[in-house]
Amino acid sequence: MVADESAVTPSAAGGREFWRRFRRSRAGIIGLGLVVLLVVVAMAAPLLAPRDPQTTSLVTLNPPGTPGHPLGTDNLGRDILSGVLWGSRVSLTVGVCAAAAAVLLGVFIGSLAGFYGGWADAVLGRITELFQVIPRFVLALLVVALFGSGLWKLIAVIGILSWPQAARVVRGQVMALRGAAYVDAARVLGLRNARIIFSEILPNVLAPVVVIGSLDVAGAILLEASLGFFGLGDPNLVSWGMMLNNAQAHLRQAWWMSVFPGIAISLAVLGFNLMGDGLNDAANPRLGV
Amino acid sequence: MTAGSTPLWRYAAGRLAQAVPLLLGVVVVNFLLISLAPGDPVATLLGEYPAPPEYVAQLRREFGLDQPAPVRLALYAWNVARGELGFSFAYRLPVAALVVGRLGNTFLLMVTALTLAALVGVGLGVTAARRRGSGLDTAATGISLAGYSIPDFWLSQLLVLLFAVFLGWLPAQGIRSVREQYTGMAAVLDVARHLILPAAALSFRYMALISRLTRASMLEAMSQDFILAARARGLPERLVLLQHGLRNAALPVVTVIGYNFAFVLAGSALVETVFGWPGVGRLLYDAILQRDTPVLLGVLLMVSATVVVVNLLTDLLYAALDPRVRY
Q1: How do residues B175-192 score in pLDDT, each as one tens digit?
Q2: Read out DSSP for B36-68?
Q3: Which end of chain A is more exposed for a tag (fewer CB within 10 A), N or C?
Q4: Rounded to two decimals, what is the model's pTM?
C-alpha cells in the first residue's frame, strides 16, 4: 500500500508554514477573529455584564434601549445583554470540552482500528454505523431527560455522541500511513506498536484532527443550544439555548428575547466553522482556491 | 470492478442483511438506556403518570424485570419486534400508535423541506459553478456558510417574527386553521399555507449543503473529457450543462438527502416545536415536559428504524444510478 502523500503534513517544523497558509485564508481569519472575540467575552463576562443575568426585576419585557438594559429585559425582568454575555461561558465550555473529549476518543479508537484492522476495525465500523442511524439529538435528549442535566453531564453526553467522525478520519489516515516506508523502518528498528502509533503515525494525523476538532466545537455548541431550547440545559446557568426556549412563549411581545441570543449562537458556530475551513485550507495546500 | 459485475438484487440482499444487526443495535441502545437510568426501570417504562397496579404488574412480567439482564434484553427485543412499545398514560394511547399517527405530519414537513432544498440548492449550485468567482458565486458561498451556522429553531423563530408577527402574512402555529372548517381543496391550501414557514426553516441547512456540493461536483464534471467531447460535437452549452453536467452532479444530491435523513429528522423536531406542528418532534418536546419516558423511548426506536430503512433505500437508489458502486 502506498502512503497518501496528503496525509503527511509537516508537524513541528511546519508550524510556521502552516500559520502562513492559514493567514492567507480569509474565512480562517474571520473565524479566528470570532473565536477570539467569544473567548474574550466569556472570560470578561463578569466585567462586561451590566448586572447579574439571573436577577429578576419589575421591569419585565422592556424593549432594547431601556436605560440600564441596552438589549431589553425578558419576562422576569432579567437583563438580556447580561444573559448573552454570560451565556457565552456555557457555550464555549461545553463546545470546547465536548469536542476535546470527542476528538480524544476518536483518535484513540480510530488509530486502533486503522492500525490493527481486523476485528477492531469491524467493531468500530458497526458502532460508527449505529451512530449514523440514531439521530444524535434525539439520543442526547433522551439521555439528558433520563439522567438529568448539568454542565458536566452535557459535556459528557455530547462528547460521547460526537467521536465517530474523528475516528473515521483518523482510521483512514492511519491505514494509509501504516504501510509507509518510514513506519516499516520503525518496525525494523524494533519499536513497539504503541510507540509507532504515538510517535511515528499520530503526529502526521494531527492536521485533519485539528480541522475536525474545530468543526466539532461548532457542532457541540449547536447541540448544546438545541438541548437548551428543549428545556434541558443546566438549570443553574444562563445559556443561549434556554434563553431561546424562554423567548418562544413571548415571541409576540418581545422579539428581542429571541433575536440577540440567536445572533450569539450563530456567530459562535460560524466562527468555529470558518476557522475549521481555514485550517482545512492550510492543511491541504494542494487543493488551492 | 467492471460495471454490473454484481446484479442489483444480490447487492440489495447484502445490504438488507447488514440492516438487521443495525436494528438490533438500536434495540440494545434503548435497552441500555432503560437499564442504566437511575431509579426503578418500571418508572422509566411508565413515565410520571399514575398507572393502574395491574398494568405495573403486567409490565414487570412482560419485561421480566426480576430476571437476569440477558433474559430482560431478549424479552425487550421480543416486545419491540411485535410492536409492543409501551403505553403512554399522558395520551392514553399505545406508544406505537401514537408515534405512527404523528409520523405522517413529520414526513409531510420533511419531504416538502427536502424538495425545496434540492430545487433551490441545485439551482444555486449550478449557477454558482457556471459563474465561478462572480458576485453570485460569493453570495452562494455566504448563504451556505449561514446555513451551516444558524440554528434551525432560531431561524424558525425569526420567520415567525417576520412573516407572522410583523407582516401577518402567514400563520405561526399549527397545521390547519382552528377557527375555519375547510373542506376539499380549501383544506389542502390551508395546510399548504401552514407548511410554508416550517418547511422553509427546515430546508435552509440542506439547501446550503446541496448547493455547495452541487457547485463542487459541477465544476468537477464540467472539466471532464466527455464534456469537452460534447462541446466539440457542437452541442449547445445549455444541453451540455443539463444533460451531461447535471446528470453527474445528481449523485451527491441523492447522497446528501439520503444519508442526512437522521439529521433532518432531528431538525424537524426543533422546527416543529417552534411552529406547534403536530409531528413526532412536537410529541418529543411534550413528552419531555410531561416526563412521558415511554414515548421518548418509542420515538428514539422508531425514528432510528426509519433512518435504517431510508439509508437502505438510498444505497439501492445510488447503486441503481451508478453501477460502479456494486463492486
Answers
A1: 888 777 788 888 888 888
A2: HSSS-HHHHHH-SS---HHHHHHHHHHTTTTS-
A3: C
A4: 0.88
